[in-house]
Amino acid sequence: MEVKAKGEIFRVSGPVVTAEGISPRMYDVVLVGHEKLMGEVIRLEGDKSTIQVYEDTSGIRPGEPVENTGESLSVELGPGLLRSIYDGIQRPLPVLRDSMGDYILRGVTAPGLDHTVKWDFKATAKAGDEVNGGDILGTVQETPTIVHKILVPPKVSGKIKSIKKGKYTVDEVIGTLEDGTELQLMHKWPVREPRPFSRKHPPDIPLVTGTRILDSLFPIAKGGTAAIPGGFGTGKTVIQQTLAKWSDAQIVVYVGCGERGNEMTEVLTEFPHLKDPKTGGPLMDRTVLIANTSNMPVAAREASVYTGITLAEYYRDQGYDVSLMADSTSRWAEAMREISSRLEEMPGEEGYPAYLASRLSEFYERAGRVETMAGDDGSVTVIGAVSPAGGDFSEPVTQNTLRIVKVFWALDSKLAQKRHFPAINWLTSYSLYNRVLGDWYSENASEKWSDNIATTMAILQEESELQEIVQLVGSDALPEDQQLTLEVARLLREFYLQQNAFHDVDTYCKLNVQAEFLDVILYYKELAEAALASGISVPNLTGIPVLEELGRSKFEENFIDLLPKLRKRIKNEISGLKED
Amino acid sequence: MQKEYKTIREIAGPLVFVEKTEPVGYGELVQIAMPDGSTKRGQVLDTSKDIVVVQVFEGTSGIDRASGVKFLGETIKLSVSKDMLGRIFNGAGEPIDGGAPIVPEKRSEIIGAAINPYSRASPHEFIQTGISTIDGLNTLVMGQKLPIFSGSGLPHNDIALQIARQAKTLGSDREFAVVFAGMGITNEEAHYFMSDFERTGALSRAVVFMNLASDPAVERLITPRIALTAAEYLAFEHGYDILVILTDMTNYCEALRQIGAAREEVPGRRGYPGYMYTDLAQNYERAGLIKGKAGSVTQVPILTMPGDDITHPIPDLTGYITEGQIVVSRELHRKGIYPPIFVLPSLSRLMNAGIGEGQTREDHKQLSDQLYAAYAEGVDLRGLVAIVGKEALSERDQRLLEFSDDFEDRFVRQGREIDRHIGDDTLELGWDMISALPESALTRIDKKIMSQYHPAYRDKNKK
Lengths: 580, 463
Ligand SMILES: Nc1ncnc2c1ncn2[C@@H]1O[C@H](COP(=O)(O)OP(=O)(O)OP(=O)(O)O)[C@@H](O)[C@H]1O
Ligand SMILES: [Mg+2]
Known about the structure:
The structure holds two protein chains of two kinds. By secondary structure, chain A is α+β, with helices and mostly antiparallel strands. Chain A contains 16 helices and 26 strands. In chain A, strands 8, 18, 19, 20, 21, 22, 23, 24, 25 and 26 form a ten-stranded mixed β-sheet that branches. The model of chain A has no long low-confidence stretch (mean pLDDT 93). In chain B, 34% of the residues lie in helices and 24% in strands. Chain B has helices at 132-137, 156-166, 187-200, 223-238, 249-262, 276-284, 313-321, 330-334, 351-354, 364-388, 395-412, 422-434, 447-453, 455-462, and strands at 4-5, 8-12, 15-19, 28-33, 39-48, 51-56, 68-75, 77-80, 87-90, 106-109, 120-121, 126-128, 140-141, 148-150, 168-169, 177-185, 206-212, 241-247, 289-290, 296-304, 324-328, 341-348. In chain B, the strands form five sheets. Chain B has an eight-stranded mixed β-sheet, with helices on both faces. Chain B has a seven-stranded antiparallel β-sheet with strand order 1-7-4-5-6-3-2, with no helix packed on it. In chain B, α13 (447-453) packs across α14 (455-462). At the A-B interface, β1, α1, α4, α6 and α11 of A face β5, β11, α6, α7 and β22 of B. Adenosine-5'-triphosphate (ATP) binds at residues 230, 232-238, 259, 387, 421-422, 499-502 of chain A.
């Protein structure tokens, strides 16, 4: 029997409403006021229940009714998620537009999935099979490139009594278990509860991004966690969007959490026209968008990251490699802060609630490469942008995030201002996956991979030390070999590390191209050092025309074919130089 | 008739606490009758069965326990009409130009609901401001929100006025209607703006809202919302392209801080409320285009950075919301350069969508990248020169150093009345300056563009 209770509003303070007369459980969803605004119970105290409301509360009065649904905040999981754009609580934005126009008004509920579309279901399980939660019942072709596996809901198990195939909507019965449980193409799952899996694998396969500085210097593993902190305008969103486009995840969940409306529009207009490099299908076919922009209600912003990660886990459970981009986790933390301050909770650092750290770690903990309940391999990689106040990384959200994530891509305002993009600081960033992934790269990209990366990092490190001297005395005062090091470092920075996300070719660099490109630059270093030792001057070595050519060639479609020729030219031009 | 309560329990700063009321709606408009017979307006900030907290727009001075409080049963609305064009209002939306009251075509909620992201159209149309540093290097696009980060005593008002006067689209020569919101500005500033609007005839296609420094601070919190409500109405119901100028957002944020303190809220960074980001976003995000609708709302908010510090919460949170920023520099101002726009920390994030073939010119992007890079290098070298002397620089570096001075002197500097065309003036000037650099330094420009636009080649190619 459903326990529903009715009570009434006692107090309204922005997104926080206090009700009396209901006795809900924590995190139950309640409907607030005559307009039935959706909210969630976040505190119980005496006979009062405190509710965060996902919609604007203007005009709502004490005394209006409050109704407990007895359910916790859940999402609908089934075919039709891909290509969708949702708000923070999984209401499809196109449906909201149809029912309330161009502005987001309130009091409209809309199911996450379209309940009228019929999907062609092919059963793979059969009557008599013993199934458990997470097992695969069959498939639906969700988009031209993605096959959606229909799963037994996690907490259900039993023997299949009957199973059908053919065209069904998400809520029609496609089969039953012996105990009478009905199976559908969709099921619901509460967003705040991690979905179960059999066990976690160590993350030892990289998520290949096509962004040189990431793959080469600071790689992330499938199932790993990364943070991108940076001041405004340093490139967080561009990196997230670039990864959403080109990384080798099979499914992308992109959460715009408290950011700009125009950025979501950009994704919506761009993605349907871009091709997934692996499948050739439109990128939108593998993407789910969640848009809770900065001017939408804060409580729904708080929920949006949970909605996002639950959808991501659901595709992981189907055996896919999923990546979740959250832009920006700071806005989520601020939503927590705002709600917490309305609750008059004891504030922690900079007004953030004391539970900030645990919420962050619970969230990132939901990443991972796992063996699914069905015995497949799936992963959720979580990449969170962080927007530190004043660009200062010592603030609580950045610091607490860094304690959890394994990869740190530090964006640097100075680099961004110099238009060095991606503005990732190569001296302060790190990846704890570097060691484990090294083997994979050596096997799959190039044998020299690890050595070349080590050399590159050493040169960049040395450069930064030399730059301090140069600032004081100018570069002419340095010994010649160090001047040459500066030149090699410049090539690495300007040619290799800089990458224009808006250039059709440069935006994505395949691994074999990365390996060869880096090797050619280091080949120059080797020959130039030898030539220097035999008496050739630095200006001659740094003035050879092939270097400029190398810088321009990376923008060519056939760059990989040009690289061997450039390598030869380096050899010829250096050996053509005479001693002064 | 609404009931009048004489149950004020407490008055603190801009807040009035009223008890024993019937249920009052959150955000509801409040009217307070003072002992002297005048009235004040306010808004409900917190409502419960026990007590209602009211924020009074005109300040609480003169209110006593015996004052009557009426709850008006609706949230704050603005009467909007096309007739608002050419009119001047106070910061709460009441006419102050002696003209007739506005006959409303509609009454709109001033707390704008969020535009559904799915309903938005991407901004893509170039706006020519006639200012080279903006058009050439930090292009403004219709529907964008691009703030001016300035400092006290710098000529940001002149820049705003120049943009308001000169802004147009190229192909259709559509002109903009201006919605102007002054928040906490001095009488003198207000006068300066008004006389310029009158002198140039701009007033006839402007709607002006003025909250002066002497007006109550709390009123400032509704001024931008009122202005944006008028802007959205004219844009999306009458098809106008609206340029909204909000000045000075710093005063707005100070008012926000004051309310937070009065409510004894837990303060966020440097005493500003933790929700300031959301609050600012609710204003700034009211820029944009809507699919299938003719008009547009473009925003140029102006703020003065306290202590010229760009990491101060006001510019910082603004930068996190807007689509770039135009930075005004005290150093350039001291050098006597107008407009003292410092292009290096400035950025228009939507620039690429608004420039290039069919919009401005195909060479725009590369030329602008090159100008930026060369200027940045030149400015960098200034530091080194101070240490090692000019003679120690290479030939190439000396030319870059000279370029950076020339750039400030000719490209950045332009008169207050000078309206430069993007192609004929701004880009041509850029090419002229860049041709003083050795060609080997022009790495951002490809061969094709060089041969067509570089002064050394283009004339030959034309023949
Ligand atoms: N890889 C890149 N290639 C070229 N340009 C870039 C790149 N990354 C960033 N940019 C430039 O920097 C600008 C700002 O980037 P972005 O919008 O990603 O910043 P952000 O860190 O998300 O800022 P905010 O915190 O304000 O959202 C972009 O509009 C673009 O001009
Ligand atoms: Mg961003």
